């Protein structure tokens, strides 16, 4: 009987392992509740296999992509970048880059993420190990962005609670932080003209009250403790919305990705009826063609494309890695791109209509009505809210919407960093941290600490410096390396074959030509132009110029990501096998994709033979019954047991003397 119990216990453990392995390999819709992505890491190929945690349904993935697209990348960054780049002229390179680079690159990232089932580091490391550093570089950029995107969420929290006051403090000039330059038409009379140095109440509230801005980066000032508290609240919300990975963040997005659309449409409809809105729209849609030779316009257009769609930051690769293998990638690409373009257009109309109204009231032109800093939305949008009926209600709803948008963007960024850490160091994470929640907490705490310099009195200068160098200057080079690695070295033929295996249809000539020729050439041309005709960033329409050492800090931020590409290439080259230089190069360019030992496919059901025993056990469960019913109390189960049967066979065939 003890032997019988041992066999039963061993068989039970074997069956449970078979069940989990069967579910991991077979395409059983596990849902997000089955988080067994990092089980059985003893297998030497486990880090190459597709992840087994999936979106619970198709809508969660679409909302994740749309939520990122309609996040801060559009509502905050698009009007800021467009205004900073001269208005209508920005739309020309923006549209060119969108159709030649951004949409094809989005399709490429979704394909790679869905096929490999890994984040940016794991995916690029499988397709082209020599360029694995490009995946790491995108994660570094995402991490740097997370440090200051959370500050925007903190600003939103501050404005949200301030909106509950009986009198909103940004609608007049009767507050202690206002200066003699503060001016509103209602205070001076309808026929009065604004002075040349006039400033809006919302601008003075943001700079003098919220930021308590210093004279420059060289004057850091004190910590803004109110903003510090808001920043802590922002990171707490991010943590508790992402600590269960897509299981928790996907549910939050049902609201945060849909609510902003309704509010944006209502606000846009109101903004276009304001006096002076036509002048603002003229600035938005009428380009000054002479500005096209300015390299910063092209850099800003490229960075805005990639920021709004989430490409080259690893977000879309990470999102797609949770997809089912046969998900329709083309449909997702078209949907996300269309929503992104429509949202950018709506937000642009809303923002520049309001700017036109402000320019009329301040007796100036649209180009000079406010500063071009990253806090532009906290100057323009509050002024628009003040002109709405029931202004307080609309202000509360708007800043709650901005909070939702910020959380959408931050969910994606944190998910990229966490996913990449787990994909890149699965054994170390399992040994030292253990739980997914601990990894998320670690990332959130480190990002929060790195974001502290943004909330001192001189933090807004640091904010713009990091945004320019970490998320604008380097992003085109990362996109170029990613396209080269996948389209040239891995090959458009291989990628097309992978897409056809997943969806049943190969990519069109448009995608293949953009991957192979048009996209890399355009990105390389913009990169060269940016080096030839480069202008250092300034603040407040050039009124503040950074000191030389500040530009050194900016390039240091840029180097954090750029150094990953050649650094990782050298490491992989030294680790590769081969007697000669070219043999090592060929080995590092060879794909390292997991393939089944039986059929050679990346996704199949052959690699774990235990699943066949499990299926047979289930089919024969009603056929084989235990001879002694009382054995059920000792662990005996219904069904055929392969290990028990083989043991019985061995006992039957053994000599009687043994």
From TrEMBL:
Binding site for Na(+): 67, 70, 74, 308, 340, 405, 409
Subcellular location: Membrane
Chief site of localization: membrane
Alphabetized UniProt keyword annotations: Disulfide bond, Membrane, Metal-binding, Sodium, Symport, Transmembrane, Transmembrane helix, Transport
GO MF entries: amino acid:sodium symporter activity; metal ion binding; neurotransmitter:sodium symporter activity; osmosensor activity
Membrane topology according to the record: Multi-pass membrane protein
GO annotation terms (biological process): amino acid import across plasma membrane; glial cell growth; transmission of nerve impulse
UniProt name for this protein: Transporter
The species this protein was found in: Drosophila yakuba
Encoding gene (name): Dyak\GE14708
